[in-house]
Every structure is written in C-alpha cells, then in structure tokens.
Write a structure and sequence with these properties.
It is built from three helices and seven strands, in the order βααββββββα. The chain has 145 residues and is an alpha+beta fold. The longest helix is centred in the C-terminal third of the chain and has 29 residues. It starts with a strand and ends with a helix.
Length: 145
C-alpha cells in the first residue's frame, strides 16, 4: 500500500522567508517533532544532488535515512527522495504567494513502505498526516513569532 500525505498552511511571511527557513535542512529539527538530527553529506548550499542524513523517531521506531535533492527552485519548490533508508519516500515542499506578503506552503510525503511500515499501512498514513499537520503549525508559529 502506498502512502501519499499532503498538508498545507498559510504563513504570514513572504515565500523568500518561508523557503529560506523551511528549505534549510539544518532547521528541520526545530519544526519537525519527529526529526532528531540532520547532517549534510555534501557541502552546502542546497542544490540538486545535495545529500543529508536524517535521524527521526516515528511510531516508536528510530529511523535513519539519506535524502537527496532532486529538484530545487528557491522560493518555489524543494523535492527530496530517500537515497538510503527504511523505504522509498519522496518529500516535496512548495511555496507560493498568498495574500499580501503571505505564503501558502504545501508539504507532501509519498512512498511505498515495506517491512514494519507496510504492516502499519493505514495507521501509518493517519499518523503521518497528524504529524505533518502539527509540523506545519509549528513552522507557522516559529516564522510568525
């Protein structure tokens, strides 16, 4: 069973501000509740081909995986795919203008779980939706503070 979770929020900051913060992997542990750490495998700055190691805690399990940037358009879109990890996953951030000086940010995670994640199926997708909704709310709170 594939997983495809998409959530969005509107943040009262410009796309440049939102993408600069959310698109910086070093900031991920501050707004993703489940991400414990991120380390660059390639030298910054962000570009297609950049790789980062993520350590996360999800559904009581410790997950380690490497993301590779496959698409990067500053202030518009960031797409990362797992190059190594528990199952193939693609994460997409999009940023677009919304109202006066605001940004609509969309966060999409999709993939094909295997092993434990595949068994968890629908429960995993619900948990991912709850977690990513809270993560975007946390990001909004940080950027609007």
């Amino acid at each position: 069973m594939g997983v495809d979770v998409q959530v969005e929020t509107t943040i009262s900051r410009t796309p440049a501000e939102v993408s600069a913060y959310a698109g910086d992997p070093g900031n991920a542990p501050s707004w993703y509740a489940n991400i414990r750490s991120v380390e660059w495998r390639t030298e910054p700055p962000m570009r297609v081909g950049s790789r980062m190691d993520f350590v996360a805690q999800f559904l009581g399990r410790r997950l380690t995986y490497t993301y590779e940037v496959v698409d990067w358009v500053p202030q518009e879109r960031l797409v990362m795919r797992t190059a190594d990890g528990p199952f193939p996953m693609e994460t997409t951030y999009t940023w677009e203008p919304a109202g006066e000086g605001g940004t609509r940010m969309t966060l999409r995670n999709r993939g094909n779980p295997s092993g434990f994640a595949r068994i968890a199926g629908v429960a995993m997708e619900r948990a991912m939706r709850r977690a990513t909704t809270k993560d975007l709310a946390r990001l909004k709170g940080i950027l609007e503070a």
